[in-house]
Structures are given as structure tokens and as C-alpha cells.
Design a protein that fits this description.
The protein is of the alpha/beta class. The chain folds into two domains: 172 residues, Peroxisomal Thiolase, Chain A, domain 1 (3-Layer(aba) Sandwich); 143 residues, Thiolase/Chalcone synthase (Peroxisomal Thiolase, Chain A, domain 1, 3-Layer(aba) Sandwich). The strands form four sheets. The chain has a five-stranded mixed beta sheet, sandwiched between helices. The chain is globular, with a radius of gyration of 18 Å.
Length: 326
Amino acid sequence: MTAVVRSVVTGAGGYLPPDVVTNAELALTVDTSDAWIVERTGIQSRRRAAPDQATSDLAVQAALMALDRAGRGVGDVDMIIVATTTPDLTFPATAAIVQRKLGAPIGIAFDVQAVCSGFVYAMSVADSFIVRGVSKCALVIGAETMTRLMDWSDRGTCVLFGDGAGAVVLEPSEGEGLTSDRGVLGFSLRADGAKQDLLYVDGGPSTTGTVGKLRMQGNQVFRHAVVNISEAVLAAARNAGVAPSEVDWFIPHQANQRILEGVAKRLGIDGGRVISTVSEHANTSAASIPLALSVAIEDGRIRPGQLLLFEAMGGGLTWGAVVVRL
């Protein structure tokens, strides 16, 4: 039987800024309440980066933890992909800044911008590099300072988001081409630019010359999320040759507890197999999946050999899913 190269997650790490912002604190400055936020989103608190913390600083901390758990050093890294919608600068790529701050050797470094779906997109890109033999040790990082995009007078959005970073180390490993192999088994990616107005930021270098603020039609996003994510998950599972019922852990983008539950119910996945960190982290956009993965590995729920399903949906609209055996 011909050996098949897979990209295997050998380590995962996460980082959250120390500043915890509770719902009660937000209620002091915007027309909302803890009960209103929890009922509609499941969020109880979120983290906020310090004024002197950039997205790259969060990314570096998550990357160092992932490398440590993988038993690798900075010198082993030959590719860095950062999924972010809140880069340090317009250019260079945040990944190149992370490379410098880590002291990693010259290699490949670039960003992926698919908003909340960024980590899923970045995983598929890194998988292609590894399977083709271009990379032997890739850092795939989701890192965001979403609080910098908030309109703090808009209670429909400012209560939803937080800051953080998550990272995984991907390395090549030979398998037999079976679903029992470790590594990325399948994925599906989608985008529909016609839905831009449902979730976007109203600024940019070539239009307003400003960063802008996040705008969202929440009810419409919720409706599209449950239906579209479910379709992408089923497609990724088909591509991987597995059924959703075989998945040990469902690790969705942590946008809203109601969306998590709605997608899991539509897919027939038991709630006890869903990893949820949204209550403490809120929506950290591209960072949410690797952050949740890191938490669940650290607390012992997720173990080597288990089948994992990642999914996300973000502005664009973009969405997608990845099936990985740890």
C-alpha cells in the first residue's frame, strides 16, 4: 500500500490577555445587562488586550505554547500562517512580525484573511504546503484584537467580541490513506460575497483610509450560520470519508452559544461532544477554534487519536469545516 502524507497537529496552544471584561462592566457604559447578553449569546465575559499589546504579541504567546507542546523549538519552524482580521499594520503581514518576534529562521510567512473562518482556511492552506513537501514544521495561528474594531455604543455587537490567540503546530506524517490516520482528513471551504452587508467593517485603506467599526445584521447572520455551516460540515465529512456520528469532539467557532447548539442539533451531534468556551472567551474570530482546542487538550477532554471537527463562519460571508484526527 502506498504511504500517504498527512499534516498532523503535534501541538496546540492558546493565549488570553489578562484583562477580563464582564457583562456587568459593559452594562455601565451601554444599554444592556448581564441577563440580556447571556440569554441571547451565552457570553458571560471576554478578554481585552492591553493598550500596548498588538495582535502579534498574542500570537507569539500562543505559538510558544504550541511549540512547547509539540516538543519543537523556534528554530524548527519553516512556515508561519496567521489568520487575522486585526493585523498589527496594513503591511507587513502579521505573520512576518511574529516570525521576527519569535526569532524564527527565514522561511514562509503570510496572513490569511477570512475573518472568523480564517483558521479553517489557514489550516487548509498549511495542509497543502505540508502534503507537497514544502513545509516540515508549520505554525498556524489565529490571533485577534477584535475589541479594537468595536463601536462601544452598539450593544448588538460590542458585547459579542473579545481578544485572544490560538495556535497549532502542523507536521508531516505518513499514513495508509485510511480514516484511522492521524492528521487532516478532509475539509470544505465556502464564500458568498453577495452577503457582505450582513457582517463587515465600514472602513479600510483604499476606501475610507480608516480602520472602521464592525457592523452586523445579527438575525440574518444567525439564520445563514446554522444552515450554511451544516452543509459545509457534511461536505468536509464526506471528503474525509467519515460520518458526523463518528466525530469524538465538535469544535465550532465560538460565536454564539445558540449557533453552536443549532448546528450541533442539525447535524445530530450530542451536546456533550461540543467544546464550548464562548461563555468566557466571547467571539475571538479566527482565534476561537484553536483557543477552544488548546483548552480541551489541556483539561484532558481531547486526547491523541480522537476525531475532531472544526467549523466556522465569518464576514464575507465565508464559512468552512475541517476534519482532523489528533
